[in-house]
Amino acid sequence: MSRKFSFTVSYTVPVEELHRAITSDEMWQARFDGAETATLELSRPDGPGTIRVHMTERAREDKVPALVRKVLKSELVLERTDSWGALEGDTAKGTFVGASTGITTEMSGAYVLRPTAEGSEIEVAGTVSVKVPLVGGAIEPLAENLQQRVVNSERKFIENWLATTADA
């Protein structure tokens, strides 16, 4: 069984600025600087103005919810790949795919970046599936919440990074 989800994250920066940051190697390298349990691979298979960001992170045991720890078969490693297309007019589209080891989890969906009166926003819509008998349905909301926390954390980082690099 899978669970659908959607949420929107608002930014205070214009679409062009946000897209430039999201497709910037420098921003992603700064985001992962010092992350000892994470890896980052950047590529541009679709050309300039696009990006493919492949991330993995080994979850610290103290950060794994108790329900998840009970069903883990091995170390929990989270993997996510985001792909962003070029800016077309005032919108850009992207996709994400995620999975984990230690517990069979799959997540996929789409991003839409568009302008708002206050700046811009990214709409996130996808599905998550946790293949664990009896408790998979209870873990799916945790996975959805993790995706929401990650995207909100990226919003804070990107806005701070843009403010810092604009001053430089």
Please explain how this structure is put together:
By secondary structure, the protein is an alpha+beta fold. It has helices at residues 15-22, 25-32, 66-71, 136-167, and strands spanning 3-11, 38-43, 51-58, 77-84, 92-101, 105-116, 119-130. A hairpin with a 2-residue loop joins strand 6 (105-116) and strand 7. The protein is globular and about 45 Å long. The chain starts with a strand and ends with a helix. The mean pLDDT is 90.
The geometry reads as globular
Alpha-carbon Rg, integer:
16 Å
Query: How many distinct helices?
Result: 4
Low-confidence stretches: none
Question: How far do the termini sit from each other?
Answer: 49 Å
Structural class: alpha+beta
Percentage of residues in DSSP E strands: 35-45%
Q: Could you tell me the mean pLDDT?
A: 90
Q: What is the count of β-strands?
A: 7
User: Sheet with the most strands?
Assistant: 7 strands, antiparallel
Proportion of residues in helical segments: 25-40%
